[in-house]
């Protein structure tokens, strides 16, 4: 697996840009009377791209809103579920940085409001806050991001999901979707139109359901209720935007597989779909692997014209979350204190497990005891998550002659609680019905985060040259309170240094510009580090990344292009030195065993390119190219300098052809992902030390959509009728869609959905 020489690719891209620019001048067509968002991004000093309407058509309304960015350069989204309805197995990678079960190195914001992290334990990705119909577009900053972005995870870039604004015209719309794997979805939205001569608003509701794509019968399901409301009020010198979202999801999970297991059967993740009555088998019962989450997010954004040259926006927000994660251990736990007394709270001094109880219901702790007349037992293990976040962002823009000065602050207080309790399964022979009162509460921990971020940026314009200078800093305090054992309480500061950024944008002419930028990024130390015993916090440093971009953009009447060379150095990579091999059974008793250490970092460089070409009145072609070379920079703790970073695609190519003629629309897209290494940590195989291994096979995934919209006259019952068919993985290819080191997600087979929408 060899990466093409970047200089050769750069030369090829330059030639393509020249050729297509000439073609654009020859084939320029009249612009439509609608706003067109360019996928090549904004005119700024860092690499960025945006989604467009065609990318939304390629995804079913029931699909995860995160899938919208999968065709953008540098980005790879992996979903265990066919419709993305399993947060436990959602992965995102970009330039060697990831969001997965173990790491969260990319920031996510909703209308600029921080999402509260993307970890499975206590985090909330964008799909918890947005329906696809209410998403206007997604801005992706690869590497760097806007300096005002509020995130503690933006080590490798930021994804900002922008919600749709209310319509000026009063009306209602409903949608009904049906699809593969018993998928169904109901959606309704009401727009008030303009009221009080200055306000528009909408309210929406959706109800979604689908079974897991693997297996049949009791193979697990996802069920989601989602509500949104948004209003915009225009005043003389101000605008007030308020938005509320509520999401209630039940998701039965998928399991990760090894490469060998994928080759044995790429359509089975090892979970079962029939209850057997044997806890050793039923611990893998799909309906017992569950994620339950409720998320409520409210913000009010006030934008003011302070003077003719100064603008201020202030956005207070509130986020509430509670949820649960379920597993089904094939035993019960006997925890004791130092004196040997049975305890019902806390880890205690000793813990042992047992599989049987005698006729009197007493645990049989001696494994040599005859159990032929005993009763088998099992547990239903729940991990409870609760979070409250309150914060505010404030940003000032001040224009002075040839300068734009920006300054801002982000403040947040977060309180998070995590409890794990164990419930007795009432009769393992029947089902996993459980005793509502836990027999043992393993831990009860509170976490508090206090966050302060401030920034200052000056943009100076000298004719066609724009110079951007900025700096930002994070001040973060984290505390943990063990409600069972105060000796485990701890706290740490995860402050950043002053993080500089510098960039330039030079316009060669009205359509072509060069840009370059350097930025230092930062990720706060996660609070889970405070769970580890014997941890030397003074030896840990927060993760940082130095990001450099150099590129060009072309904006034409019908053709837009961008190409970026990037170079990133990822420092102080934090790793937990305890890794559970994928083939082993889960360690149900672990809280977070192991020690976090800095293990050097990662160096990556590459090229990202994107194109948007409306080459005929009804046709458009979009494409993106990713060439990424990400390597470990140090030999330490089982990783070797110069090896490829695990589970990061190196070469991706996307092309999408779209047709629109007013009433009819259609499109097809293909994404090619070259083979890459899935693992990099040293392993001894047949007596030899092996580092880079698990060559993930290449894949090409084709998606298509077909749609028809009929706008009725004023006397009809409906304003419009819209029909849409979406097909994903047309060729029904077996492939690995994502994952992390040694643990991979099976890609879903061919999936279809059909949606009928009515406007009133």
From TrEMBL:
Organism for this UniProt entry: Rheinheimera sp. BAL341
Residue intervals of the TonB-dependent receptor plug domain: 59-157
Topological category with respect to the lipid bilayer: Multi-pass membrane protein
UniProt short sequence motif TonB C-terminal box, positions renumbered to this chain: 743-760
UniProt subcellular location: Cell outer membrane
Annotated ranges, domain TonB-dependent receptor-like beta-barrel: 350-730
UniProt name for this protein: TonB-dependent receptor
Family membership noted in the UniProt record: Belongs to the TonB-dependent receptor family.
Record carries keyword NADP: no
Keywords: Cell outer membrane, Ion transport, Iron, Iron transport, Membrane, Receptor, Signal, TonB box, Transmembrane, Transmembrane beta strand, Transport
Pfam family, one: Plug
Keyword Kinase set for record: no
SUPFAM superfamilies: Porins
InterPro entries named among the record's database cross-references: Beta-barrel_TonB (IPR000531), Beta-barrel_TonB_sf (IPR036942), Plug_dom (IPR012910), Plug_dom_sf (IPR037066), TonB-dep_rcpt-like (IPR039426), TonB_rcpt_CS (IPR010917)
Residues of the signal peptide: 1-23
């Amino acid at each position: 697996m060899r990466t093409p020489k970047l200089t050769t690719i750069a030369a090829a891209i330059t030639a393509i840009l020249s050729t297509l620019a000439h073609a654009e001048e020859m084939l320029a067509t009249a612009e439509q009377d609608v706003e067109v968002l360019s996928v090549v991004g904004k005119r700024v000093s860092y690499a960025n791209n945006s989604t467009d309407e065609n990318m939304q058509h390629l995804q079913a309304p029931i699909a995860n809103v995160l899938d919208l960015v999968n065709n953008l350069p540098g980005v790879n989204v992996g979903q265990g579920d066919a419709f993305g309805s399993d947060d436990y197995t959602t992965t995102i990678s970009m330039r060697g940085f990831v969001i997965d079960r173990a790491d969260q190195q990319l920031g996510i914001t909703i209308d600029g409001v921080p999402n509260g992290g993307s970890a499975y334990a206590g985090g909330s990705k964008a799909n918890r806050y947005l329906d696809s119909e209410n998403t206007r577009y997604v801005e992706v900053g690869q590497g760097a991001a806007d300096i005002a972005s509020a995130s503690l995870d933006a080590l490798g870039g930021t994804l900002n999901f922008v919600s749709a604004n209310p319509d000026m015209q009063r009306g209602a719309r409903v949608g009904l979707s049906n699809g593969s794997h018993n998928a169904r979805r109901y959606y309704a939205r009401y727009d008030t139109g303009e009221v009080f001569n200055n306000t528009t608003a909408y309210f929406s509701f959706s109800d979604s359901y689908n079974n897991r794509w693997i297996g049949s019968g009791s193979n697990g399901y996802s069920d989601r209720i989602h509500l949104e409301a948004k209003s915009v009020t225009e005043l003389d010198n101000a605008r007030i935007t308020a938005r509320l979202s509520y999401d209630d999801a039940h998701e039965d999970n998928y399991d990760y597989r090894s490469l060998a297991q994928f080759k044995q059967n790429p359509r089975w993740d090892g979970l079962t779909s029939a209850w057997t009555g044997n806890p050793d088998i039923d611990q893998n019962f799909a309906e017992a692997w569950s994620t339950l989450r409720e998320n409520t997010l409210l913000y009010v954004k006030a934008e003011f014209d302070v003077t003719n040259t100064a603008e201020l926006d202030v956005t207070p927000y509130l986020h509430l979350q509670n949820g649960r994660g379920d597993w089904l251990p094939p035993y019960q736990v006997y925890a004791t204190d130092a004196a040997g007394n049975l305890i019902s709270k806390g880890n205690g001094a000793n813990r042992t497990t047992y599989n049987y109880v005698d006729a009197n219901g007493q645990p049989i702790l001696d494994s040599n005891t005859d159990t032929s007349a005993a009763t088998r037992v099992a547990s239903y293990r729940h991990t409870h998550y609760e979070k409250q976040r309150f914060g505010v962002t404030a940003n000032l823009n001040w224009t002075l002659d040839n300068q734009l000065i920006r300054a801002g602050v982000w403040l947040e207080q977060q309180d998070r609680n995590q409890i794990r309790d164990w419930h007795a399964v009432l009769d393992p022979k029947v089902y996993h019905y459980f005793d509502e009162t836990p027999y043992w509460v393993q831990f009860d921990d509170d976490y508090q985060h206090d966050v302060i971020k401030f920034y200052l940026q000056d943009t100076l314009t000298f004719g066609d040259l724009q110079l951007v200078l900025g700096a930002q800093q994070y001040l973060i305090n984290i505390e943990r309170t063990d409600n069972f054992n105060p000796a485990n309480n701890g706290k740490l500061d995860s402050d950043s240094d002053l993080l500089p950024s510098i960039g330039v944008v030079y316009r060669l002419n009205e359509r072509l510009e060069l840009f370059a930028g350097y930025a230092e990024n930062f990720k706060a130390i996660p609070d889970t580090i405070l769970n580890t015993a014997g941890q030397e916090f003074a030896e840990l440093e927060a993760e940082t990344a130095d990001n450099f971009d150099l590129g060009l953009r072309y904006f034409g009447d019908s053709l837009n292009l961008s190409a970026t060379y990037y170079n990133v150095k990822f420092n102080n990579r934090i790793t937990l030195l305890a890794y559970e091999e994928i083939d082993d059974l889960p360690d149900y008793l672990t809280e977070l065993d192991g020690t976090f250490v800095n293990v050097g970092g990662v160096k990556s460089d590459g090229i990202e390119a994107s194109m948007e070409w409306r080459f005929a009145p009804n046709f458009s072609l979009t494409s993106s190219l990713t060439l990424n070379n990400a390597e470990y920079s140090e030999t330490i703790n089982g990783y070797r300098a110069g090896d490829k970073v695990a589970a990061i695609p190196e070469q991706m190519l996307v092309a999408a052809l779209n047709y629109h003629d007013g009433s009819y629309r259609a499109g097809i897209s293909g994404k090619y992902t070259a083979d890459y290494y899935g693992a990099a940590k040293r392993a001894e195989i047949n007596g030899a030390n092996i580092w880079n291994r698990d060559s993930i096979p290449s894949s090409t995934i084709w998606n298509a959509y077909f749609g028809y919209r009929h706008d009725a006259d004023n006397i009809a019952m409906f304003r419009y009728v819209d029909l849409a068919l979406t097909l994903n993985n047309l060729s029904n290819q077996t492939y690995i869609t994502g994952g992390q080191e040694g643990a991979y997600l099976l890609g879903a087979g061919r999936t279809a959905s059909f949606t009928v929408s009515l406007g009133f």
